[in-house]
Amino acid sequence: MINVTDNIEAKKVDTLLLNEYNYTEDVLIQNAAHSLFNEIDKTVNKYIVAVGPGNNGADGLALAILLHSINKDVKIICKKNMSIYHKIALKIGIPSIEHVQSCDILIDALFGFGFSGPVQGYYKELIDEINEKKDYKIISIDLNTAHINSDCVLMLSTYKQTLLNSSIPKKVLKIGVNEKIYECVSNKYIVDEEYIGSIKKEKNEFCNKSDFGRVKIYAKKGAALLASRASVKSGSGYTYLISDDETRKANLSFNPECINSDTTKYDVICLGPNNGVDFDYASIIYTNLDKKMVIDADALTYISNNLEILDSLTEDCVLTPHPLEFSRISGYDLNEILEKPFEKLEEFGKKYKGTIILKGKNNIIYDGHKFYIVNIGNSKMANAGMGDLLSGMIASYLAQGYKTRDAVIYATYQQAKIGRYLSEKKDTINPTDILSLINNK
Ligand SMILES: NC(=O)C1=CN([C@@H]2O[C@H](COP(=O)(O)OP(=O)(O)OC[C@H]3O[C@@H](n4cnc5c(N)ncnc54)[C@H](O)[C@@H]3O)[C@@H](O)[C@H]2O)[C@@H](O)CC1
Ligand SMILES: Nc1ncnc2c1ncn2[C@@H]1O[C@H](COP(=O)(O)OP(=O)(O)O)[C@@H](O)[C@H]1O
């Protein structure tokens, strides 16, 4: 998985590598430059590198030297950079220009995580000029400098936290450092295919349906159909729906594999999708504390009026709030949650047991120790019922024996991955579109 760092953590990584692991700045800059060079489009010819005063600028200069070595037409705009790379660049004849010229790619190597705003004077004027002329593609190194209209950011070694809220295309490049080294600095990770592959459970040849667990869902109306169908399609051995007559009747034709009656034998309960806020969730929760549990939607609203329930939750409970629901159960201000989701989840997680997923563009999963971010979905998925579907999927993977945290990660990733796939074909992605593709190869 890829580590996520805020500016303070990124500086700590820097210090750690230099002081504890004997890396030098030059080794890191060289590694960064080679990764950038490998990634950058070399089918074009003209490049300009806008160079800042610090190591972000040095990365840009080292990249310019590599582009020059393969005879590309590369120029630098560099007022001040004390690194050896500036001297080398000038010595080998890379032209230094004062103003932006026409080119194919402009590389923003002005500032990285050492920047603290606002930008003024020379750099402000240069940034305005870069944005104004724009007949080129702008690629930013590590972070996009304030107000630059980048087309892409190539982050170095860690995912930069401020970019979680940016829609600019981005990629993390390795710089010759094993990610495990960052673990003592950051406990936030972007979930990737590699992690998903490592937790995926394969089916044994002699398996039986009872090996895949029993899910009992308390839900009503369309939300019940979505959650229970998602549970069935995600592979739980048995899915039971506890609902009203009308919903059960509709579910019979929509979801023939689901069992529309109660059971005393089950491993997981999923509570809430459109089940009403007047339902007695407390007694279901208190009598099922030995089971795995997914608490969603109306059950979360109920808890916000019966907060003492939170004290009873176990490690095997999953809460699935969107930001407003999280605000209701935590009492935190909604804007504060949106601005500082990690801090607020950690504060909440210190008080109560279990795993919580804060849903949205960045789905942030917190298990009381680490944060796992699933951010491959897209805004076309933002419509009613998506959360109901997700809670059914989480319940299903819990029943199949996934660790609590991993069931949440696995379900969220599968949902977002289908959303990403469909986004190329559709302008709106409905939960039923996702349902039809759950479990497809
Ligand atoms: N492990 C790492 O952490 C690595 C970091 N590298 C690069 O190093 C960068 C960080 O380098 P630095 O710490 O030197 O910082 P930066 O290069 O991001 O910027 C620091 C410089 O910008 C100036 N500055 C800051 N805010 C300003 C403002 N508002 N207006 C004008 N000037 C301002 C500072 O005085 C300082 O000279 C990363 O973003 C990355 O590109 C790479 O070289 C490879 C490895
Ligand atoms: N902008 C977005 N980008 C990516 N995924 C999104 C976005 N908005 C919502 N989602 C996904 O849709 C779901 C929304 O859940 P929720 O708000 O609870 O929906 P509902 O109210 O329909 O139950 C989450 O799984 C989330 O990942």
From TrEMBL:
Q: According to the record, how does the cofactor bind? A: Binds 1 potassium ion per subunit.
Recorded superkingdom: Bacteria
Q: Where is the YjeF C-terminal domain?
A: 222-441
**EC identifiers of the protein:** 4.2.1.136
SUPFAM superfamilies noted in UniProt:
Ribokinase-like, YjeF N-terminal domain-like
- Write out the catalysed reaction: (6S)-NADPHX + ADP = AMP + phosphate + NADPH + H(+); (6S)-NADHX + ADP = AMP + phosphate + NADH + H(+); (6R)-NADPHX = (6S)-NADPHX; (6R)-NADHX = (6S)-NADHX
Q: Where is the YjeF N-terminal domain?
A: 10-183
Q: Which InterPro entries match?
A: CARKD (IPR000631), Nnr (IPR030677), Ribokinase-like (IPR029056), YjeF_N_dom (IPR004443), YjeF_N_dom_sf (IPR036652)
The family classification in the record reads: Belongs to the NnrD/CARKD family. In the N-terminal section; belongs to the NnrE/AIBP family.
Query: What name appears for this protein in its UniProt entry?
Result: ADP-dependent (S)-NAD(P)H-hydrate dehydratase
Organism this protein belongs to: Sneathia vaginalis
